[in-house]
Design brief:
Layout: H1 14-26, H2 56-72, H3 78-100, H4 107-147, E1 153-155, E2 182-185, E3 189-193, E4 197-198, E5 213-223, E6 229-230, E7 235-240, E8 245-246, E9 248-250, E10 263-264, E11 269-278, E12 284-290, E13 299-304
Antiparallel strand pairs: 1-2, 2-3, 3-5, 4-5, 5-11, 6-10, 7-8, 7-12, 9-11, 12-13
Helix pairs in contact: 2-3, 2-4, 3-4
């Protein structure tokens, strides 16, 4: 009589072991990973890897601030200091803001660049003021030199008198001199204009209009300086009548209109006769003498006709 056991039958062999191993290895769902795929789950990095610090703004601000501040020390470079200072200030403030947000690590460098930019701006303003004042002073000196010296005093018949007995004044309050008066250019020249005299132009005279009257004056220039004076640069003009109409100069051979020529040595004088054409009704003749083109201002004589 055979004996039978009631033990449960289990699958044997490699098939069972393989199935069990695969289930254990790949999980309860029995899904195997694709070929070449990492069986480990992907790693989550949260906010991501740390970013590299961006310190360019602060560094640029520091460099430009240094150059701008150094340029500001030289007044003529105020424009360069102003430009670099403004750029450094903007970059420095931007770099400081980036550092606060964690995008840069050179907060101190950016702040220093901004401060230097501000210093450069201040120096540029100071340099501009100094430069403009220096240029203004130089321009005034040049204008003064080009305008020439003004007559400082007069002698002789004092100043011309008007109808009310008061001295007549010319441009900028300068008093017109009377006949025979002398305009003195301190330490350099003395200029004298005589009283007018009637002149009879010859048939070869140029500048006389029929119906007008001709008058001549004698102009004397004395060199009271220590250097010779070129009298050829002297100019004599005139205006006639109450309306100040220009009186045309009369050239009448060697007698009138030749003007001054050559140089006047120190302590010497030169004399020239000038004739002018004036309307018949003119009561006065204003003579203007400019001793030099650049060195002296003109002086005026108001002569009664």
């Amino acid at each position: 009589m055979s004996q039978h056991t009631n033990q449960p039958q289990h699958p044997q062999g490699p098939e069972y072991g393989q199935s069990y191993g695969q289930a254990e290895q790949y999980g309860q769902y029995g899904q195997s990973p694709q070929y070449g795929q990492d069986p480990q789950p992907p790693r989550h990095h949260g906010h991501g890897a740390p970013q590299q610090a961006r310190n360019g703004l602060g560094t640029a601000a520091l460099i430009l601030g240094i150059i701008g501040a150094v340029s500001g020390i030289v007044p003529l470079l105020f424009w360069l200091a102003g430009i670099l200072g403004l750029i450094a200030l903007v970059l420095g403030l931007s770099g400081r803001g980036r550092a606060k947000r964690g995008g840069a690590t050179n907060k101190g460098v950016a702040l220093t660049g901004a401060v230097l930019g501000l210093v450069a701006l201040i120096l540029s303003v100071v340099g501009a003021v100094i430069t403009f004042k220096a240029v203004d002073t130089a321009v005034k000196e040049v204008d003064k030199a080009l305008a020439g010296q003004e007559a400082t005093s007069s002698s002789g018949d004092k100043t011309a008198k008007g109808g009310d007995g008061k001295a007549e004044e010319g441009a900028k309050g300068a008093k017109a001199l009377a006949a025979g008066a002398t305009a003195e250019y301190a330490g350099k020249l003395k200029v004298t204009v005589s009283a007018p005299a009637k002149h009879s132009p010859s048939e070869y005279a140029v500048g006389h209009t029929k119906g007008n009257k001709a008058y001549k004056v004698t102009v004397t220039i004395e060199n009271t300086g220590t250097e010779k004076f070129d009298s050829a640069l002297s100019q004599v003009d005139a205006r006639a009548g109450a309306d100040g109409k220009a009186a045309e100069q009369i050239f009448d051979g060697e007698t009138t209109g030749a003007g001054f020529t050559g140089s006047i040595l120190p302590g010497k004088k030169a004399t020239a006769v000038f004739a002018f054409d004036a309307p018949a009704a003119a009561k006065n003749l204003t003579v203007e003498v400019t001793p030099g083109f650049l060195d002296f201002k003109s002086s005026h004589w108001d002569l009664k006709l």
